[in-house]
Amino acid sequence: MLEEIVRAYIRQACPVSSQHIAQNGSISLSPATIRHSMMDLEDHGYLFQPHTSAGRVPTQKAYRFFVDNCIDEEIDTHSAVVHLAEGLDAWDKHMRLITKKTHAFTAILDEDEVTHFGTAELFSEPEFARDPDLLHSFGSFMDSLADMLEAYHVATRNVSSPRVFIERENPVPEARRMSAVASPLQGDRGVVIALGLSRMNYETIITMFKYF
Fold first, then answer.
1. What are the tens digits of pLDDT across the range 46-78?
2. Structural domain boundaries, residue 179
């Protein structure tokens, strides 16, 4: 059920109700039973209710569970998304494809050279219009982008696959209202990251990062 809720929130960017899960999810339970289970998940810190009459929103704990247990890292491997990525002869084209598909901000640190894409796509997400502090945090991140990327470079040394940093797990304070996927470049030359809202499309980003 938690996976259903997280996926629904990633898609719709608004609190998820028991009625929505009953009507649109794959769980064959009544709205009342789903609502009771959602209350249990809230008691255990996986969901919160922004308003009394609203549905539930995933917490950092919920996203961590989702990334650790529900991600299908092979998703899109044979789909049009990866098909478009195959054969691209430049990283910037690959990064633009990721930002277009996921609305995440992407950046590469490669031997002291910094390239980034996707600011406009990220800002198109409704959370930025509702939350000025989120915009300020991202501005601070951009002000020291090279230093931010170096922190992710250090955090991904000695790993062979993308790492996911959710909110407070991020190695830099400026990114702790968001989430990031970071992957080391071959030969320890640098790092590639995707920075976005906590409801970002983790599966697509992780899959496409495997092509770097």
1. 999 988 777 899 999 999 999 999 987 655 444
2. 80-209
